[in-house]
Design goal:
The structure is a single chain. The chain is α/β, with parallel strands linked by helices and 364 residues long. 38% of the residues lie in helices and 13% in strands. It has eleven helices and ten strands. It is globular and about 55 Å long. The protein binds zinc ion (ZN). The site of zinc ion has 7 residues, from loops.
Length: 364
């Protein structure tokens, strides 16, 4: 069985400006690194070309008027917010990114690949049904999830561990019990949402789970969150597929977030997600790239880590250059772990009416 890697050189075309954090070098450095490591010709890895998403697929998530606005703005150039300009040709790029996520999802759902990683841009998790925001235009993850449900998947778990709260994805599935949305993110940080008491509404109550963490949070705290929140919820929810919104701005070198996760720690999280999915959904894991702005210092290593973990390759040699150690020390806050543990306890108590796994929670 193989790990599918969805990539297309067209993902490098989109650009708001050469100095914008979400720029084409985010992927070009990674591609160079993967080529150097020989991953494109590794027997366990298969390059999967994307198709553009259709308007029908995108409109399962987004309002038709918003897509018409994007289409018009893509002809003339346009504006959503100060971080999210609409350059000419944007809609084509956004549809290819959403199509890339769909292609990754379908390759796993049909058994063509054991698991997959969609190395797409522009990212998607801040995009809501009726608007883009925060560098995002079309919500690639949500479009993929709806396509998989169209193909017969009943329940999907979304793990969003981008440093920023996935507010767009949350809003799309907020009342939907068929999708368990679980976000770990830095707080305070853009967009400001994602408190523990945001747990969904109506039939979706209990199916949105937010774990805000303070700046300086590192690997150990992420492992704790994985074992005490993510794993028990995932086992009880029993999804058909695990989808990861793979935001890599949790890396300690990221210039626009303040967390302290290492590439090895990141890969370990993906390894745990793979092992978890083997227990609950035949190993079906699909990762879709979200943020990550440490173009040279972080992204090539974390992307490599994701691929190595998905493909079951050794993580032994996966580490950043030794000269980064000082940066890691400066980014880490030793007091963050205790605060994370308290948040986890409180959250388990808050979720205990909705989830059996937390019914004996001490925070209840
Ligand atoms: Zn982010």
């Amino acid at each position: 069985m193989t790990t599918g890697l969805v990539f297309d050189r067209e993902f490098l075309l989109h650009e708001q400006s050469p100095t914008h954090p979400e720029r084409r070098e985010r992927l070009s450095y990674t591609i160079d690194q993967l080529r150097e490591e020989g991953l494109f010709c590794h027997p366990r890895i298969r390059l999967v070309p994307p198709d553009r998403a259709t308007r029908e697929q995108v409109e399962r998530v987004h309002h038709s008027e918003y897509i018409s606005f994007l289409s018009e703005a893509s002809r003339t150039g346009g504006f959503i917010d100060f971080d999210t300009l609409v350059p000419k040709g944007l809609l084509d790029s956004a549809l290819l990114a959403a199509g890339g996520a769909i292609r990754a999802g379908i390759s796993v759902w049909t058994g063509e690949c054991a698991n997959a990683f969609a190395l797409v841009r522009p990212p998607g998790h801040h995009a809501r049904a009726g608007t883009g925001a925060g560098f995002c235009y079309v919500n690639n993850m949500a479009v993929m999830v709806r396509q998989l449900q169209h193909e017969g998947a009943k329940k999907i778990l979304i793990l969003d561990w981008d440093a920023h709260h996935g507010d767009g994805t949350q809003s799309i599935f907020y009342e939907d019990p068929s999708v368990l949305f679980l976000s770990v993110h830095q707080r305070p940080l853009y967009p400001g949402s994602g408190d523990i008491d945001e747990i969904g509404e109506g039939a979706g109550r209990g199916y949105t789970v937010n774990v805000p963490v303070p700046p300086g949070t590192g690997d150990e705290s992420y492992y704790h969150i994985f074992e005490s929140v993510i794993a028990p919820l995932a086992e009880e929810f029993a999804p058909d597929l695990v989808a990861i919104s793979a935001g890599q701005d949790v890396h300690f070198t990221d210039p626009i977030a303040g967390l302290a996760v290492t590439a090895r720690g990141y890969a370990e999280m993906v390894s745990r997600a793979v092992a978890l999915s083997e227990r609950i959904c035949h190993g079906r894991v699909v990762a879709v790239l979200e943020g990550g702005y440490s173009v040279e210092g972080g992204l090539p290593y974390t992307n490599l880590g994701i691929i190595a973990a998905l493909a079951g390759l050794s993580l032994e040699n996966l580490r950043e250059p030794a000269m980064y150690q000082d940066l890691l020390l400066r980014a880490s806050d030793p007091s963050a772990h205790e605060r994370v543990c308290r948040t986890v306890e409180k959250l388990q108590g808050l979720l205990s009416p909705h989830w059996e796994c937390f019914s004996e929670s001490p925070g209840r």
